[in-house]
Amino acid sequence: MATIIHEIMTAHERRPALTIAIASILVLIFILQSSLITINDFSFYGAEALAKPWSLITSSFLHADFYHLFFNLIALFWFGCLLELATKVDRKRILFVFILAAFTGGVTTFLVGGRGIGASDAIFGLAGILVVIGFEFLPAVVPIIVLNFVVNLAEIPVLIIHMSGFLTGVLLSIYFKKRGVKGFI
Fold it and tell me: Which of 51, 98, 114, 115 has a CA 20 to 30 Å removed from the CA of 122?
């Protein structure tokens, strides 16, 4: 009996619960934004962020259309599942990096004068963790970054915003690693 309980508990620990939760929130907000909420209340354009400081984070949970959400969900599941299933990084640390990368992306969007919308900045923060954890994750991260670069080549501010999220993940991971923070690697 103890063995069965241990197997159930171990299987539960290996599920990408945080990734599924974030994806569910993104989908729910997309449905709500399609019917109930006004996108302008939670996103910003340039200096509007000063009047709506919450939008520096909330804008990362909004998406322009179904395809924008769909491709962000693919990247979220790719990086999120890798982090939750193939590393020992604590879910609280993953969530912390996700939210801080979203905020950093919002600040970067404000600085480059763009429109703040989409979870790409936060998702690239997760890719940043993987790069710091080890070289074995580079084959999983580099193609997505290259694809992002190619797709957004004409939109340099978008690339800068995505890379700000990535750098947030890298820098926080280096900090956590050097400090020997529990629940990280």
Answer: 51
List the structure tokens of 125: 């923060």
Walk along the chain (185 residues) and give the pLDDT tens digit of each residue: 344 334 434 545 678 999 999 999 999 999 988 776 666 667 776 777 777 888 888 889 989 889 999 999 999 999 999 999 888 889 999 999 999 999 999 999 888 877 778 999 999 999 999 999 887 888 889 998 888 888 887 788 888 999 999 999 999 999 998 888 877 76
Instruction: Report CA Rg, the chain.
Output: 17
CA end-to-end span of the chain: 31
Domain coverage including residue 162: 2-179
Planar angle of CA 174, 185, 131, nearest 5 degrees? 50
Is 185 contained in some domain? no
Residue 77 lies in a domain: yes
pTM for the whole thing? Answer: 0.86
> Is 146 in a helix, a strand, or coil?
helix
Residue 49 in any domain: the answer is: yes
Residue 51 within any structural domain of the chain: yes
Our count of domains for the chain comes to: 1
